[in-house]
């Protein structure tokens, strides 16, 4: 598969602080930042009953005129976007870095496919969107199964 084709594949992208560090993520802060983008954004906080253990927040976010769904957890701390390609994930990661994550704490990323294949979390490059997309494509190639 060509890199351009890989970049269009959809999976869940997961963003977390490095092991042993914290963003100080709260559902209130994330909800506030999402509503600053769009006051009508879908946001719901669940107490963790049912199949998901622990409290989590589900939300909607519109990127490039596409409605995406995401989830956030405080324990373990992280934010994910579901059914997302590398381009949209890069845009979301930049928004997360610029609006939610403290400047002095890096962002790690993985994907649903990477987690399934025991691929280690990768440091999100402090770079432009095209470089982040390239990093995501490289990660997806490393997960295997693209043949």
Helix-strand blueprint:
Elements lengths: L2 H6 L2 E6 L10 H11 L5 E4 L9 E8 L2 E9 L2 E8 L1 H14 L8 E4 H5 L5 E2 L5 H14 L5
Antiparallel strand pairs: 1-5, 1-6, 2-3, 3-4, 4-5, 6-7
Helix pairs in contact: 3-5
Largest sheet: 7 strands, antiparallel
Pattern of helices and strands? HEHEEEEHEHEH
Instruction: Report the portion of residues in β strands.
Output: 25-35%
Structural class designation: alpha+beta
The overall pLDDT average reads: 93
Write down the overall geometry.
globular
By DSSP (H or I, 4+ residues per run), the number of helices equals: 5
Uncertain runs are: none
Radius of gyration: 15 Å
Strand order of the largest sheet: 2-3-4-5-1-6-7
Distance between the termini: 7 Å
Percentage of helical residues? 25-40%
Give the total of beta strands.
Answer: 7
Describe the 3D structure:
- With 147 residues, the chain is an alpha+beta fold.
- Strands 2-3-4-5-1-6-7 form a 7-stranded antiparallel β-sheet.
- A hairpin with a 2-residue loop joins strand 4 and strand 5.
- Helix 3 packs across helix 5.
- The longest helix has 14 residues.
- The termini are close together.
- The mean pLDDT is 93.
């Amino acid at each position: 598969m060509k890199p351009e084709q890989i970049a269009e594949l959809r999976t869940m992208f997961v963003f977390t602080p490095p092991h042993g560090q914290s963003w100080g993520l709260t559902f209130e802060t994330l909800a506030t930042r999402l509503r600053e983008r769009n006051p009508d954004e879908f946001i719901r906080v669940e107490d963790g009953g049912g199949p998901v253990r622990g409290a989590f927040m589900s939300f909607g976010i519109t990127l490039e005129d596409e409605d995406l769904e995401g989830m956030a957890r405080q324990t373990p701390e992280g934010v994910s976007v579901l059914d997302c390609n590398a381009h949209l994930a890069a845009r979301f990661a930049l928004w997360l870095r610029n609006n939610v994550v403290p400047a002095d704490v890096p962002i790690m990323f993985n994907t649903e496919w990477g987690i399934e294949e025991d691929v280690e979390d990768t440091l999100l490059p402090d770079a432009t969107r095209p470089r982040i997309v390239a990093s995501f494509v490289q990660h997806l190639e490393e997960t295997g199964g693209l043949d």
